[in-house]
Design brief:
mainly alpha, two-stranded antiparallel sheet, 33 helices, 4% strand
């Protein structure tokens, strides 16, 4: 059924009114079924199967809806206040129908993002997720938008840096496809949380069935994946300073430094963390201390902690000491030796409690040093630490949010996904320490998907902005043996590039000499001058335009491509070998992963449908733009003039809309750059030598209006709406209904039938309806400048 409430609504409409609408589009219409491995196909299939998401299963609103239609048919008075769902406003549709429409909105947001891969469409995915599970985008708005802003503006100052904002959405979707296609993961996820529901005596014990497990995964995997990198603004300044000194000051006095950390160089660290971690109620206006103390108990399962980071050390010490898997890991052993703690050679069950206590103290020490002493972690500032702490603070501030240890699982997965597990839990290179699904399904999937998602990532750093990276990937699943093949695709443009030729020469030479790519390149780089001049002189002459010195470290521009390459089918690439050290993917834990070499994986052109326009502004203007767009539709005087309002008033008006209509306003805001481009205009918040535009010409408004109408119509079709013309020509009952009732102006009935009389060709619209598309545009010229500092110019 997929959308049970929506389908029930359509069924009642046909039964009570004789109106049969088109309903929800088939999923297969959005992408070719014969093209295997497309991310959106599995991700959207997963969303469709999340039936009854956030439903009130005890609701009787469909019976109330039947009664309203019965009274309506009989010409009696009726009261729609029994319908609690929102559409253009509250009390228009049954509540469970609203929840289904939210999920359909989410599905369409995923489809748009997969088509474009843009930050603007990634915004929709974040927005939908937060609205569905946490009620209000504004709860986490600043930390999400600041991540995108920091990367766009500060990333260029780094030697090596790639996008994390769009990347997080890809990681989210990759995880959905794993859940949808890998049976052993679904089984282990359900078993893990089914046991937790029982152990913690939750009210719905015994109700953690397949459907509930899927909905549970969507919520907590979304929290884990979408927010795992929001702490990156803390890592950026550290890397900027490190890169400056390594590549500017120290590079003149030492060889092969690149951006490696040198203990004697200046570096950034974060002090005064004690107050931030111990002051559990930073925003005292949002939640009382009593409520916060209750939340802390919920995070820990009623165990005492001294500060926020101790929540994680308590939780992770339980996870990492269920057995003695990490008992001999070098970081832990070194800590015990430094503290004079003698560990028994053959620990038994009796030592378990003491082991857990020691491990908790060890993790407390690690987390205390993380922000303030990066020199003790090889000069590495871990954004994952700040991501987890920031999200914990935000969730604490949500007064009505009921916390349980599943949230602790999600944030702990964020905490360890980057350097803590690799540098503080395991012995580097020891594949026996590879993380498994059974230890934490969320942490396992995050570490795996975070490593696998390396395609279509914007590069900002000086050394890697023109590097050769994978542009796409194809996923192949075999549910019978839980095997996964990930194929990375490169743009065939690079086949004409000498950098690729140089990489291919390295691979061929390694094959001839019977060495791995890594070993051969090490030998090539370190060969003596005589061998170099005799054997490799022609290579230098051929590729000197690629690298100044082939004997130097492999340039960043080729690192990624070569790390994906192998010289034989029996050999793992460096990329794959690194993954195997982090997570278990050899079949022992249930999942068998294969990553073929990229030897022949090229394609003619990117699948992404990105459109570039001159219009530029701060990313954070998008939400405000949508808020202003919505407000101007509703706030006009008798002369149709726009009546201004405060930002707070406009935001309150915006939040009264359902998610479907909020996203519609956001999509209109995103399309504005395209509309301006079509009439030779652009907007920017930067100073330019053009005369600002104060209002549009009539012909310009007509062009913009027609484009907006076309966008809106396509959006409606994707959301399961039907043009009234299609109904009128095929359904006498609808014609009778429109004659009997002022359907055009009766919004609740329109929203319940999901039939719209404005879904027709632009030249068939009335002047009044055309003005709906054109009237807002001149007002937007003023609103953009007033609220966002943006001005519109003609080219």
């Amino acid at each position: 059924m997929a959308y049970n409430a929506l389908n029930e609504l359509f069924r009642i409409n046909k039964e009570m009114l004789g109106v049969d609408s088109d309903g929800i589009p088939e999923l297969g219409k959005h992408f070719p079924k014969d093209e295997e491995g497309i991310l959106e196909s599995s991700a959207c299939e997963f969303i469709r199967k999340c039936e009854d998401l956030n439903f009130d299963l005890s609701s009787e609103e469909f019976e109330k809806y039947r009664e309203i239609l019965r009274q309506f048919n009989e010409g009696k008075e009726y009261d729609i206040n029994g319908l609690t769902g929102r559409s253009t406003r509250v009390h228009q549709i049954p509540k469970n129908v609203e929840k289904d429409i939210e999920r359909l909105t989410f599905e369409n947001a995923i489809l748009r993002f997969c088509e474009s891969g843009s930050a603007e469409d990634a915004f929709d995915v974040y927005f939908c997720y937060l609205s569905i599970f946490f009620g209000d985008y504004r709860n986490t708005r600043d930390i999400i938008e600041m991540l995108c802003e920091f990367e766009n503006n500060a990333g260029a100052l780094l030697m090596k840096h790639r996008d994390h904002y769009v990347h997080s959405v890809y990681v989210f979707l990759l995880g959905l496809t794993f859940y949808e296609n890998v049976g052993i993961y679904r089984e282990k996820y359900k078993r893990y949380y089914e046991k937790k529901f029982t152990d913690e005596n939750r009210n719905n014990v015994g109700q953690f069935n397949e459907k509930n497990a899927r909905n549970h995964f969507l919520k907590f995997w979304g929290l884990t994946s979408l927010f795992h990198d929001i702490g990156y603004p803390f890592e950026l300044p550290f890397e900027q300073i490190k890169g400056y000194f390594a590549n500017s000051v120290y590079k003149r006095t030492a060889k092969n430094i690149k951006e490696k950390f040198i203990p004697t160089m200046p570096y950034v660290s974060y002090q005064n963390m004690y107050d931030f971690l111990s002051n559990l109620n930073i925003n005292s206006d949002s939640i009382s201390q009593e409520d916060l103390n209750e939340k802390i108990d919920q995070w820990t399962g009623n165990e005492r902690v001294c500060d926020l980071s101790d929540i994680f050390s308590l939780h992770l010490s339980k996870a990492f000491t269920r057995d003695y898997k990490y008992y001999d890991a070098k970081p832990f052993v070194d800590y015990c030796e430094s503290k004079g703690i003698k560990l028994p050679g053959n620990p038994g069950e009796a030592f378990k409690t003491h082991y857990r206590q020691i491990y908790r103290r060890y993790l407390q020490d690690v987390l205390t040093r993380k922000p303030s002493h990066p020199e003790s972690f090889d000069g590495y500032m871990d954004h994952a630490y700040f991501s987890a702490i920031l999200m914990l603070h935000r969730l604490n501030e949500m007064k009505d949010l009921k916390i349980n240890t599943d949230y602790t699982d999600a944030l702990s997965a964020i905490l360890i996904h980057n350097s803590i597990f690799k540098r503080s839990i395991v012995t580097k290179g020891n594949i026996k320490h590879a993380f498994t699904i059974d230890e934490s399904p969320l942490a396992y999937l995050l570490m795996l998907c975070d490593e696998l998602q390396c395609w279509d990532r914007a590069s900002y750093g000086l050394n890697n902005r023109n590097a050769i990276y994978a542009m796409d990937c194809r996923l192949e699943y075999n549910d019978r043996d839980d095997s996964i093949i990930v194929r990375y695709i490169y743009d065939s443009y690079f086949l004409k590039n000498k950098r690729i030729d140089f990489c291919e020469w390295i691979k061929d030479q390694a094959r001839l000499e019977g060495k791995s790519i890594k070993d051969f390149y090490k030998r090539f780089r370190n060969c003596d001058e005589k061998m170099y001049s005799e054997k490799y002189k022609d290579i230098y002459e051929k590729f000197k335009t690629v690298v100044d010195n082939p004997k130097a470290d492999l340039p960043e521009k080729m690192n990624d491509y070569l790390s994906m390459s192998t010289i034989s089918e029996q050999e793992d690439s460096k990329f794959f070998s690194d993954i195997k050290e982090i997570v278990s993917v050899d079949g022992e834990s249930g999942i068998h992963l294969e990553i073929p070499s990229v030897n022949e994986e090229f394609t003619e052109s990117p699948r992404k449908n990105r459109k570039a326009f001159l219009s530029r502004s701060s990313y954070m203007h998008l939400y405000d733009f949508a808020v202003a767009l919505n407000h101007q539709y509703n706030c006009r005087n008798e002369k149709k003039e726009f009546i201004g309002a405060s930002q707070k008033e406009m935001e309150n008006s915006f939040t009264e809309l359902s998610l479907e209509y909020q996203i519609s306003n956001i999509n209109q805001a995103k399309a504005f750059a395209q509309y301006l481009d079509s009439i030779g205009c652009f907007f920017t918040d930067r100073p330019v030598e053009f005369t600002p535009l104060r209002e549009f010409k009539e012909n310009e408004l007509a062009i913009i209006g027609e484009k907006e109408h076309s966008r809106w119509w396509q959006e409606k079709i994707a959301m399961g709406w039907t043009p009234d013309e299609w109904i009128e020509t095929s359904n006498d009952a609808y014609g009778e209904l429109t004659r009997k009732f002022d359907f055009k102006n009766n919004k609740w009935l329109r929203e319940c039938l999901r039939i719209h009389c404005d879904m027709r060709l632009f030249d068939k619209l009335s002047e009044e309806d055309i003005n709906k598309d054109t009237d807002p545009m001149n007002d937007m010229v003023k609103l953009l400048e007033e609220y966002d500092g943006l001005r519109i110019y003609r080219k």
